[in-house]
Task: inverse folding
């Protein structure tokens, strides 16, 4: 285990409204979906996990784990991590049509060119 993705748990139906609010204020948005119903919003009350970047060849992975009936998003190492090494994981965004694709800039040999 490397770090928990911490923040405020909100209902998934509120994410669009919050994202529009953050955009209107010029605030970067950091949200991570737990399941179909809940999302962790780390934008205002998150920790350093919100700054972990995407990579098509990551050194970490994320898992939703259940602890005492509460779901937590945890980042785990895929291999030994070295001091100063950037942490990355695959965001695994849902596949979108060509017009809504997000370009990937990870620069790895196996880059898929898109996050979704």
Result:
């Amino acid at each position: 285990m490397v770090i928990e993705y911490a923040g405020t748990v909100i209902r998934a139906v509120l994410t669009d409204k919050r994202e529009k609010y953050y955009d209107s204020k010029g605030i970067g948005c950091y949200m991570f979906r737990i399941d179909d119903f809940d999302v962790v919003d780390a934008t205002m009350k998150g920790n350093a996990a919100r700054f972990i970047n995407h990579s098509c060849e990551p050194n970490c992975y994320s898992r939703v784990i259940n602890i005492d009936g509460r779901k937590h998003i945890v980042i785990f190492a895929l291999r030994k991590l070295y001091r100063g090494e950037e942490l990355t994981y695959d965001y695994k965004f849902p596949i979108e049509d060509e017009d809504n694709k997000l370009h990937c800039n990870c620069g790895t040999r196996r880059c898929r060119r898109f996050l979704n």
Q: What stands out?
A: The longest helix spans residues 15-25. The radius of gyration is 15 Å.
